[in-house]
């Protein structure tokens, strides 16, 4: 048995897999089995895989369960020491997998890690979805070493030796210990997509585990393969799931003040969309808040469980910064400029 199971969750990504799967197979086979879990595709993905990549094992799911529940179902029962969740639009080279494996073998306190995530189209630039690993500000806004909001930095090696503690690693290329995955319950399937990996990593960090980025490993991500930036569906999922994540994971003394401020900030965001003529995204924010209120009672058992298992209510990657203030009022648009 190989120590790593690389699982690519595919939904109508036939052309992406045809383009990038060869690199994953070529540069992973010494340490990993490559598996494609198909999430109810209708574009002929399964047929293409069977014909062009017959050595790749397929797990065929009967419908599109979304990113979160799709991975939960695909990973159930897989025999490997590590799971590596990999997007279908990621290209890798021969330096990507061994550094991740060696790091995790050496650092048993680390539950999950990621490679340095670079843009496939601009390989000297960090990629939006993960860059050099992520943090979350005091009001729940995620950001990365190398990316704050829409400002993405060039990779000059500036964070390769940075020891800033992280709260989350990107779901585009997320390596997680099987034992930590199982102990934490995996991803929350109710999120469907977006924020689910941050929620998972937050739970792990709150329970005394760590998350890391391994800069010696590199992966190149296209990004936006499922939903493009600015798509109202993506806005809805990001806003709703961010509120659900805060509700699940914030300690009791922080929950009420943070949620009050987020209510204000979300309405400001909706107003900004409206004034710019973007009615679709304005509606998406308001619908996200309504859906959060509707779903919140269903998440009370998970909140109670998280609080019970919490060893560190304020993990280091959950910062005291107000990112909106730093970015818009102070003009600090680079991670290295933050106090």
Plain-language structure description:
- The protein has 339 residues and is an alpha/beta fold.
- Helix content is 40%, strand content 19%.
- It has eleven helices and twelve strands.
- The protein has helices at residues 14-26, 45-52, 66-75, 97-106, 178-184, 196-206, 232-249, 252-275, 279-295, 300-309, 323-329; strands spanning 4-10, 32-39, 57-61, 82-86, 90-92, 110-119, 134-136, 142-144, 147-148, 151-152, 173-177, 210-221.
- It has an eight-stranded mixed sheet with strand order 3-2-1-4-11-6-12-5, with helices on both faces. A two-stranded antiparallel sheet has the order 7-8.
- β7 and β8 form a beta hairpin.
- α6 (196-206) packs parallel to α7 (232-249).
- The chain is globular and about 55 Å long.
- The relative contact order is 0.14.
Task: For this entry, give a set of tags.
alpha/beta, two-stranded antiparallel sheet, 11 helices, 40% helix, 19% strand
Broad structural category: alpha/beta
Largest sheet: 8 strands, mixed
Strands of the largest sheet, in order across it?
Answer: 3-2-1-4-11-6-12-5
Written as H for each helix and E for each strand, in order along the chain, the element string is: EHEHEHEEHEEEEEEHHEHHHHH
Computed over alpha carbons, the radius of gyration is 19 Å
Q: Bin the strand percentage.
A: 15-25%
As residue ranges, the low-confidence spans are none
Rounded mean pLDDT is 96
Question: Number of helical runs?
Answer: 11
Helical content stands at 25-40%
